[in-house]
Amino acid sequence: MVAAMERGGMAEHRRALLAGLTGTVLEIGAGNGLDFGLCPATVTRVVAVEPEPRLRGLARTTATQTPVLIEVIGGPAECLSAADGAVDAVVASQVLCSVRDEGVALREIHRILAPGATYRKSRRQLSKPSPPSITPNNLTRHQCTPCGHQT
Ligand SMILES: C[S@@+](CC[C@H](N)C(=O)[O-])C[C@H]1O[C@@H](n2cnc3c(N)ncnc32)[C@H](O)[C@@H]1O
After folding, report:
1. CA of 50 to the centre of ligand 1 (A)
2. Residue 111's domain is classified under what CATH number?
3. Looking at the domain assignment, is residue 105 inside a domain?
4. Residue having the nearest C-alpha atom to atom 24 of ligand 1
5. CA-CA distance, 146 to 67, in Å (whole number)?
6. Using one digit for the tens of pLDDT, what is the confidence trace for 126-138?
7. Domains in the chain: how many in total?
8. What strand order describes the sheet that includes 43-49?
9. Beta bridge partners of 120
10. Of 7, 29, 125, 143, whose CB is crowded by the most CB atoms within 10 A?
11. What is the C-alpha R_g of the chain?
12. All residues at 6 or more sequence positions from 127 whose CB lies less than 8 Å from its CB, including other chains
């Protein structure tokens, strides 16, 4: 079914999401790594975050078959290990509708983006309302349970 969806236009949609990205890209909820092979040549490194162990294993296998340097790591979008301002782009493809706390995830994304960096997201067509835009005033503070850091 996944292969049929990719043939049915999803791959094109993924390419459009990734088009024009450069430098270090952090992908949230990478799944089995379907986006990896579609990154433009201007992307030099991908840090792929995938919390689900089975999918993470599949993503690691996909990464070995992809020319770009890819590191696949665990952890949720609500607690990203990247340093402040460390990445040139964040990509979330059909992910934010499944994260537990979207506001906290958005705060983390905002934290790790370098000045002028890009945030690209796509979401499944669900009836869930759109998330708030990222502004310092509309994000709540959050204590990350696994590592204790404040987001
Ligand atoms: C619908 S799949 C999309 C996978 C991939 N991005 C794609 O486009 O094929 C949603 C993904 O989000 C991941 N996910 C769920 N909750 C998450 C969270 N809190 N932080 C990061 N990823 C999460 C799931 O494990 C899954 O890989």
Report:
1. 7
2. 3.40.50.150
3. yes
4. 29
5. 32
6. 444 444 444 333 3
7. 1
8. 69-73, 43-49, 23-28, 87-93, 113-122
9. 91
10. 29
11. 15
12. none
- For residue 88, the enclosing domain spans 13-138
Mutate to test the pocket of ligand 1, among 95, 122, 145 (most ligand atoms within 8 A of CB): 95
Phi first, then psi, for residue 53 (nearest 5°) are -55, -40
pLDDT over 60 (residue 146): no
Tokens encoding 69: 């340097």
- Statement: the pTM of the whole predicted model exceeds 0.90: no
Residue 94 in domain = yes
| 150 within some domain | no
**For the chain, what percent of residues have pLDDT higher than 90?**
72
- Residue 124: the pLDDT is 63
Question: With the C-alpha atoms ordered 130, 18, 25, 93, is the resulting torsion angle positive or negative?
Answer: positive
Q: Is residue 58 part of a domain?
A: yes
Query: How remote is the C-alpha of 89 from its chain's centroid?
Result: 9
